[in-house]
Amino acid sequence: QVQLVESGGRLVQAGDSLRLSCAASPRTFSSLTMGWFRQAPGKERERELAVAINWVGSTYYADSVKGRFTISRDNAKNSVYLQMNSRKPEDTAVYYCAARTGYDVRGTYDYWGQGTQVTVSS
How far is CA 105 from CA 28, 36, 62, 120, in A? Predict the structure, then answer.
């Protein structure tokens, strides 16, 4: 079983930077593909995959975050991070950390954190 706990969400102003963290419980963290999804207000049934990284370092970035967001992982700390720069009001969402055992960064994710709220004011 994989347990994920996000932290770092808060209210920020447009243009500010913010880093989210996700701590994972399993010993096999280094073999997991990790992703950050986000769910915008009013879109309760839609979670967008924003960024992802697998165990060999292959990454995925949605067009909406390219050049502004960076995903990284620290296998020694069983953690994955999301650095968000040049924040925009449309980045306001609940951000979820997710994990899967497959190699494909855009596959179906099996494990989810509880989410952390990020609000960007204009």
Answer: 17, 11, 12, 27
